[in-house]
């Protein structure tokens, strides 16, 4: 029960910061997706079951906070949590390169899922302009934030027993 409260608190604080503070700091439209980084780190460190749950809750909170089409973030974060969780037993958890590579793939995967869902719902999707204008800038921001967030999730998952 305690771990559920820790994850819920982390996600609520992150959603609040991402919805209120980040638009003030990053004014060009593209900003880091800290929720995506948390879901990927959770998958890599805690496995797919926990990552799917965290992805569901994170996506749900992000859908509530964003005001966009309800369910887009929920579906994409759950899928990304599942895929990241598949690698949990096959990776060296203390690696610094792993979260960077994983967040690069997850950022593109998230963008593709979101654009595909919008296309399936009948919205006009411009993939090339979205790639140039937002996804590449967001990718750079996500890479900047992925190591500290990965370390935080490592400490939440495994405690303060390690030197990571």
Automatic annotation (TrEMBL):
Keyword rRNA-binding recorded: no
Pfam families: MreD
KW Transmembrane helix (keyword) present: yes
Major localization listed first in the record, in broad terms: membrane
Coiled coil: none
Segment forming the signal sequence: none
Bilayer topology annotation: Multi-pass membrane protein
UniProtKB keywords: Cell membrane, Cell shape, Membrane, Transmembrane, Transmembrane helix
Transmembrane annotation, as ranges: 29-47, 96-123, 135-154
Family note: Belongs to the MreD family.
The protein, known as: Rod shape-determining protein MreD
């Amino acid at each position: 029960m305690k771990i559920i409260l820790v994850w819920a608190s982390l996600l609520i604080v992150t959603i609040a910061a991402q919805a209120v503070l980040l638009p003030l700091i990053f004014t060009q439209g593209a900003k880091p997706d800290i929720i995506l980084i948390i879901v990927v780190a959770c998958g890599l460190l805690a496995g797919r079951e926990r990552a799917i749950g965290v992805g569901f809750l994170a996506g749900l909170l992000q859908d509530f906070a964003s005001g966009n089409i309800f369910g887009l973030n929920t579906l994409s974060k759950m899928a990304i949590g599942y895929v990241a969780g598949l690698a949990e037993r096959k990776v060296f958890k203390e690696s610094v390169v792993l979260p960077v590579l994983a967040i690069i793939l997850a950022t593109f995967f998230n963008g593709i899922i979101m654009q595909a869902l919008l296309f399936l719902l009948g919205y006009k999707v411009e993939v090339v302009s979205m790639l140039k204008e937002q996804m590449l800038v967001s990718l750079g921001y996500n890479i900047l934030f992925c190591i500290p967030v990965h370390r935080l999730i490592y400490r939440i998952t495994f405690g303060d027993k390690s030197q990571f």
